[in-house]
Structures are given as structure tokens and as C-alpha cells.
Amino acid sequence: MLSLKIQSIIDAIDKEGYAVIEDFLALNIVAELAGEADMLQQQGAMKAGRTGTVIKNNSVATNPRGDFIYWLAEHELSSIQNQYWQAMQVLQRALNQHFYLGLFDLEAHYAIYPTGAVYHKHLDQFREKQDRKISIIFYLNHDWSTKDGGALRLYLNKDSEIDYIDIQPDGGKLVVFLSDQFFHEVLPATRERRSLTGWFRQRGSQLS
Ligand code: OGA
Ligand code: MN
Which CATH superfamily, name and number, covers 2-201? Predict the structure, then answer.
């Protein structure tokens, strides 16, 4: 049987193409993941993020993101990463059952945005590589408040600059959306901002 949270993600994706779920995993898991991200950062294991196409003022931006990332390796997961991974497998199976997406793989990285860092408006699917079908962002920030900034601005309409929602990166919150449908950006924050961001990949690499 599907858990209520997984079911609400399926329903929201079906209706809107995106879902925002509070407290997707227990707080102690969120805290352990956040601690691991901090440790990796202290060890110097996080590297500056790189990306493909980003739209800014109708041109390709040169320095689109200011985050530092660390890729998870499926065959070398720490025990806390494994808890996250297992939950995502459940979600992947549910998405496949309901939408016949043929999702077969997850790629995921920790991301730390230093104070003031942004990620300009972009799509997670690149023109040359279209296998990312579903974006999943899991936030690891304890006690985030509106005044801290750092929202994920999700544009609800590809043709509109003003039709968006701002999603606060609260610890435990999971955001799920169709990678080829939603432009989004990360606004600057007044404190460090952590997440575990992933993409379910689709066999065949075709846009639907
Ligand atoms: C990304 C991204 C959004 C966020 O890593 O591609 O858009 O809220 N992240 O961290
Ligand atoms: Mn993105």
C-alpha cells in the first residue's frame, strides 16, 4: 500500500506537475544528512557546481550557480544516505506505476549554497541530454524562516515571468517536479542553505 505522502505526491504531480511535501522524512534523518553535508564541506569534498544551459535576460548566463556539490555514489552509500535512497526508490516505483515513466535511475548530490549564493533561472533538462525526467529536492535546513530568503522560485508557466511560487527550503520538505516543464531559480539567502537534490532518469532519453 502506498503511504499517504507518496500518494499525495502522485496526486499533485497528476494535477499540477509538481508537489511540495512537508516532513517527508523524520527530523533525525534530516539532521544526520545535514551533518554529513557539513562534514563533507569541512573535508573539502564539496566542489563548485557546474551546469549546462541557463537562461538569463534571453542569453546564456556564464556563472549561473554559486553552490558547492557532492555526488552520492549508489554503491558506496553511507547508512544515512541509504535511508534517503530507499525512500526515493519507493517514490520512483510509485511514479513508474502511475505514470508509466520508465524511470530507472537516480542521480543525487548534496548542495550547499554559501550566504548570498544563487542559481539563476533554468530548466533541469538540457538540450543535449534529456534523460532527467523528475527533479526531487530535499531540504536540510533547520529552523528556516522567511526572513532568511533562499526560496526556490518555481515558475508555473513556461511563458510567464510573473506566474511563480516561492518555496521556502525548510528542513524535511521535499519538492518534486517534472524536469522539462518548470523553470526555477534559487534566490539569495542570509545564511548557508543545504539540500539533497536528485533526478530520476528515464530510459530512452526522449522528451515526452
Ligand atoms: C538544482 C536546483 C534548487 C534548490 O540543483 O538544479 O535547481 O532549491 N536546486 O536547491
Ligand atoms: Mn534545478
Answer: q2cbj1_9rhob like domain (2.60.120.620)
More reliable by pLDDT, 119 or 129? 119
Q: Which residues line ligand 1 (CB under 6 A)?
A: 111, 119, 124, 137, 152, 169, 184, 186, 195, 197
Give Cβ neighbours of residue 8 (< 8 Å, ≥ 6 apart): 19, 21
Tell how far the Cα of 174 is from the centroid of ligand 1, in angstroms: 12
Give the residue among 134, 208, 120 at the shortest CA–CA distance from 175.
134
Q: Which ligand is closest to the CA of 193, given by its number?
A: 1
At 39-86, the pLDDT tens digits run 999 999 999 987 655 555 555 555 689 999 999 999 999 999 999 999
> To test ligand 1's pocket by mutation, which of 135, 164, 165, 174 has the most ligand atoms within 8 angstroms of CB?
135
CA distance 20 to 138: 10
Q: Half-sphere exposure (CA, 13 Å, Cβ side) for 187? A: 17
